[in-house]
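User: For a benchmark we're assembling, each entry needs the component sequences followed by a predicted structure for the full assembly. Here are entry 17's components. Please fill in the structure.
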Amino acid sequence: MIEVKHLVKRYGEKEALKGISFSVEPGEVVGLLGLNGAGKSTTMNILTGYISASSGSVTIDGRDIANEPAACKQQIGYLPEQFSFYPDMRVSEYLDFVCDLKGYPADRAKRKAHLAAICARVGISQMTGRMIRNLSKGYRQRVGFAQALVGNPKVLILDEPTVGLDPSQIIEIRQLIKDSGRESTVIVSSHILSEIQAICSRVIVIHEGRVIADDAPDRLMQNIQANHRLVIRVKGTQKEIESALGGIPKVRSVKPMPQRELGTQDVLVEGKPGADLRADVFFALARANLPLLHTYGGELSLEDVFLHLTGRDGAREEAL
Amino acid sequence: MNAIFKRELRAYFNAPLGYVLIAVAYFFTNYYYFTYNLYGNTTDFSTLYSMLFSVVLFLVPVLTMRLLSEEKRSKTDQLLLTAPVSRAGIVLGKYFAAVVVYLLAISGTLVDAVITSFVAPVDWPSVIGNFLGIALLGLALIAVCLFLSSLTESQVIAAVMGFAVSLFLVLVDAISYVVSGAFWKTLFSYLSFSARYEPFTLGVVDLPGAVFFLSVSALFLVFSIMTLERRRWM
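Assistant: Structure for entry 17:
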């Protein structure tokens, strides 16, 4: 559906994209993940034809966006990072204008039904008569989402769609994105890891203008196990825990953590990278008659994966 | 293009701007009509049209100042530039919307001519020649000011640059008298909008003048399209 090959974008001296390549199959929901300034928005701007790449190509449904921009743009619904609107327009006028822009048939009944379906889907049916400038941020974002859905595009490109929304609005927009994935191919960018994890079946990690990982979020996490680093809560004193765990050859250090529960002690147990400490820690504590109450930290968050991929893992471990 | 044209036209009349511009144009048209035609007891509209020249120079920058600059500032251009509409379509849609408002603004002169025709014979070829002249002048000025609007994100700067260019176009006649050298004299006299406009006020449909104004319009529309195109590569 979408084929991106060796995209390079230079802004003067600065090279924002340094040869990005990936392809997206129909019906996939793909997350572009990266820190601010990693090149996510630039990639999306090129995908939507807003800016041109310095070199490389983008094909959408087999058509090159540089050679057939209008045909490609017809397939795309785009929600920019900062959704901007005309302050003098009502929601219905705005969506009607977007229909005109995208060349949606002028047949009034057909258009009305199409817009009514979109408004119901994004939850703005009650707002169509309101001026967009008078809507709350959450509703404005939904109007932005609605305009992206006009014309039933095969590809939806959403640039940081939940930025600035409150938690309940974030959940609603995420659900909208998931639902859209049933009908369209979706590319959504974010610098929030949990968001990509919640929405996407695949994640492309971009860092300093390069793709550094491209996999399912779960598989990415499997690649980097962190069972060599555990935070445990034990009913006992720091000294007792240290002596119990000191006998395990794989354990490198046992550091005290702030106490969170009376009569217990939280400690960070670290072993050699790649080692799985869980069973050894359990048996050692059992032998010393020290009840193990909680174990944290064995599972990686996408954040750990990201830090690992961008080579900041070492720095983080040092900080710990 | 149609979508942009419709939106822009609606934008002029959703906000007071369109009404204010037309009202101001009608005010000055009728002021001159009163002082020259009614008070002077004449059906000759040439003086009225030549006085309107300076009014138009000040109206057009206000008419066009927000067209492209505001889209860029508020980032609404993202919607237009990612929609299946060509850059030429965007520029032409905006241009023609401004042209329609402009034609409505200067239409007061024709209304006055029609009213006059009920009480005295009006020299229609002269009125139509004059109207054509001021319409062509407007087409060219709108294209120039639209281009200026594409260069900046600030409506105020777009308007000020528009006024500066308008004033330059008035002063350029005087410059051609001051400069020495045949080349410069010819160049500045060629650039003069008022000299091109002059034959129309005599009721002559001046073909070179018409070609001049239409060429200026086309040239600056192409410049505006190129400015939008250039943004893609920056």
